[in-house]
Amino acid sequence: MGGGITSTLEDLEADIIAQCWARSCAQKFIVITGCSIGGLGFETARVLAKYGAEVVVCCRTQEACDLAVEELRSFVAPHMIHGFVLNLASFRSIQQCAESILALNRPIHILINNAATKEVSVQVTEDGFELQWQVNYLGPFYFTNLLLPMLVQGGMTSHDGRSARVVNLSSIMQYVYCSDKGLNFEHLLQAVEPTCDSNCGSGSGGSDINDEDTTQRIRSGSSLSPSASSSKGKRSSIGSKNALRWYADSKLAVILWSKELSRLMNNSDEPDNAPPVIAMSVHPGISPSTNAYRSMTYTALAQTVGLVMVKIRSTVFLTEKHKSIPLAAATTVYCALNGRVVAGEYYADCKISDLVNDSVKNDPEAGKKLWEVSMQQIDYRLQCIMAEDLALRQGTS
Q: Are strands 81-85 and 54-59 parallel, antiparallel or unpaired?
């Protein structure tokens, strides 16, 4: 597209962005989470389907999924729309949804992890994790890993030669609210409520994920299934952070994960070959249907990140203009379709943004540390699920 439109991209709605890169949209197989009617995910699905993509919509409930599929099929060929239930607050639901998508046996060209939640109080999922941490970050991380084999295929077989894309929704909150030091990884290892017998996951220190081994497995398209050891999840520290900090930390984790996934997928031994998968993170902006923050008082902000930083950073957030749903979905669509996006970067208003937590810039190991902690958290819960299933089978035999 011509350079004359670049300066006004932030004022364009998702539909126009998709139209600009319509050739990149046609013949693509795209998975989108959080697609209930009226939200960002549904608008994203609508415009991508309009311009020729085959779309899988994932919603938290069967009712929401049925409504979204029915609405989308009202203006595109029915076979171009698929729908599956995905409750990111449940590892079992994540597994079931991923299995259903993989059963379609279709290379995935674009995965948009749009689903998220913002809560006013700390809550714990059935898997033992803080709700926002799991729905906004850990669940999408696990879901993406389960779909990686088909994403790698998508990147290797794309008709336009482009890498498969993972577009992860983050938030400006990671800049406003998170500690300057970034994530506390020791805290995260302990922020798990036990969900099964103490004998489940009795390893000494969690998965030892060798970086070279991880890279080899991910490039070959193997799913990153956790090892047999466990995380330190027996004494929970979930309640030591308030809900707002959990939300902000989950959105910072999304940025670090996107950078690390892109790094792992980049084969430095073959610099001329595009990596099979790249990832970006996105701040969609503040939309009336998703905004849960403007009622936050100045005092609450100050208690969260400190008085001095609130005076500086809250201005960035509190002066940000509201966006309509079509405007808020634009940056997601831009990152999904534009051939010139930069792997691992954080985007806002259809351009790279430098409003990121200091740890993103100053700690090159943060992404690797987060990946290891995340695998340990998943490992712990999967062992519990296996123990629960075994107990159920023994109880019914």
A: parallel
Selection from 115, 123, 45, 111 nearest residue 86 by Cα? 115
Angle between helices 40-50 and 62-72 (to 10 degrees): 30
Distance from C-alpha of 145 to C-alpha of 123, rounded to nearest angstrom: 25
Contacts 24+ apart (CB under 8 A), 2-11: 9/330, 9/334, 9/349, 9/350, 9/351, 10/330, 10/349, 10/350, 10/351, 11/327
- Identify the bridge partners of residue 348 per DSSP, sorted by sequence position: 283, 351
Residue 143 lies in a domain: yes
The CA distances from residue 286 to 10, 225, 283, 350, 355, in Å, are 13, 35, 9, 14, 15
Q: What pLDDT, in 10s, does the model give residues 198-209? A: 455 443 333 333
CA–CA gap between residue 70 and residue 58 (Å, rounded):
13
Q: Which of 108, 192, 193 is nearest to 143 (CA)?
A: 108
The CATH number linked to 228 is: 3.40.50.720
φ/ψ bin of 259: left (φ > 0), alpha (ψ from -120 to 50), beta (otherwise): alpha
Rg of the chain taking only CA atoms, in angstroms: 20
Domain tally, the chain: 1
Q: Is residue 293 helix, strand or coil?
A: coil
Instruction: Classify 54 as helix, strand or coil.
Output: strand
Evaluate whether residue 31 is within a structural domain.
yes
389 CB neighbour count, 10 Å cutoff: 11
Domain of residue 155, residue span? 12-396
Q: What is the pTM of this model?
A: 0.86
Question: Can you tell me the distance from the alpha carbon of 64 to that of 68, in angstroms, rounded to the nearest whole number?
Answer: 6
Residue 319: what residue type?
Answer: T
Comparing C-alpha atoms, which of 87, 91, 89, 60 is closest to residue 378?
Answer: 91
Per-residue pLDDT reduced to its tens digit, 39-81: 999 999 999 999 999 999 999 999 999 999 999 999 999 999 9
